[in-house]
Structures are given as structure tokens and as C-alpha cells.
Amino acid sequence: MKHGPLLDANEFKKNLGWYCDVCGRHRKDRFISVYTIDFSRDFKCVDGTIKKNFKYCNDSRHCYNHIKMIAESKVYKITHPI
Ligand SMILES: [Zn+2]
Asked: Is 19 within the bounds of a domain?
């Protein structure tokens, strides 16, 4: 491995990660999925106007269920700052 301020592309990809919007953990890219929820009707807008992408751990039932609960109830209850 080279030492220096620049990471090579593979090293960068390996370290690429995201924060889960539910549990707040920083996870590797492959463990994070995105779920888009349409909040437009809550704001009396046309469908598709106000959408938000939520990132969640795709290996965690807890995180997935939480996202699904939000999608179904449209209740914005996430405590972790987004
Ligand atoms: Zn999570």
C-alpha cells in the first residue's frame, strides 16, 4: 500500500460508507440501501413534489422496519438528525 495523502480508487471504494438514518451507525456502502418516501400529500402538493431519501442498514430488520413504518404511516419520527 502506498503512503500519501491520496487514496487509490480501490482503497476509496473500500472505505466508502454512509450513515444510517435510523440507527445512526456508519456503515460500509454495501450495507446501506436507500428508500424514497413521498411526503407530497402531507404538504398538499402534487405527488412526487416532496420526496426524501432515507438510508438504512439493509442487513438490519430493525432499520428496514422503521423505514417501512415511516413509509406506511408517513409519520416523520426519526430521532437521528438527518
Ligand atoms: Zn441502521
From this structure: yes
Does residue 30 belong to any structural domain of this protein? yes
Residue 34 domain boundaries: 15-73
Residues 9, 67: Cα–Cα separation, whole Å: 32
What's the 2 CA to ligand 1 centre distance in angstroms? 33
At residue 62, what are phi and psi to the nearest 5 degrees? -60, -50
**C-alpha 46 to ligand 1 mean position (Å):** 30
Please report, in tens digits, the pLDDT of each residue of the chain (82 residues total): 556 666 677 777 767 899 999 999 999 999 999 999 888 887 888 888 888 899 999 999 999 999 998 888 765 544 444 4
Residue 8 lies in a domain: no
Ion ligand 1: residues, CB < 5 A: 20, 22-23, 57, 60, 63
For the chain, the domain total comes to 1
- The span from the CA of 26 to the CA of 1, in Å, is 24
- Rounded to the nearest angstrom, the distance between the alpha carbon of 65 and the centre of ligand 1 is 10
